[in-house]
Amino acid sequence: MNPALASSLNVSRETFERLEHYVALLHKWNPKINLVSRGTLQDVWERHIRDSLQVFEAAEGLTGAWVDLGSGGGLPGLVVALAQRPGFSVTLVESDQRKAAFLRTVLRETGSTGTVIAERIEATEPQSAAVLSARALAALPQLLGFCERHLAQEGVALLPKGITWKNEVAEAQKSFSFHCEAIKSCTQEGAVILRIREISRV
Ligand SMILES: C[S@@+](CC[C@H](N)C(=O)[O-])C[C@H]1O[C@@H](n2cnc3c(N)ncnc32)[C@H](O)[C@@H]1O
Description:
GO terms for molecular function: rRNA (guanine-N7-)-methyltransferase activity. This protein has helices spanning 3-9, 13-33, 44-57, 77-83, 97-110, 140-150, 165-172; strands spanning 64-69, 88-93, 115-117, 129-133, 151-161, 176-184, 192-201. The protein is α/β, with parallel strands linked by helices. It has a 7-stranded mixed β-sheet, sandwiched between helices. The longest helix is centred in the N-terminal third of the chain and has 21 residues, at 13-33. It is globular, with a radius of gyration of 16 Å. Bound molecules: S-adenosylmethionine (SAM).
């Protein structure tokens, strides 16, 4: 337990302990199945955990079914599940069977609840999510297509994007109408979390 780190992440002791267990499993499994790029593993708390927790914070005021698409090694969806905030049920969609096995292992070993769907997003039964997240999965136009399938009408998408986010928004506006708020990232200069709702085709 590192109290200074736990406090800077603004998580409870219990959540921090689950996150520590997750980080240990990431180190153990990563050499075999490449869950995160090897170079980022030494800096996992900043590059991945803090980066995912800020997506969670952007969900302030929301509750219900949280669906994370293309979860990979669990970012940000598994971190949301490990935080165990009341009012959310978390589903992780990841088509790679080995990564899905990893996600289930972390949930089981940390005593956390969550569902892992080891299927392709396009083939998964529509989820009617209240909150939909996806990090490093696809460009915004494709992500909004996934939202059409999996986000409830009143739902909110939380999509971390890098410094070219304005270009992606402009590209997506050619095919979709949507309300978009850009929340500054605390982990990368120029990056944002797009908070998107009221999506429809133009
Ligand atoms: C670049 S990784 C990002 C993983 C994680 N979100 C992160 O930020 O580290 C993209 C993940 O999405 C999964 N994926 C890509 N296309 C998918 C699809 N159509 N259906 C389900 N999973 C998909 C891949 O297997 C991979 O694990």
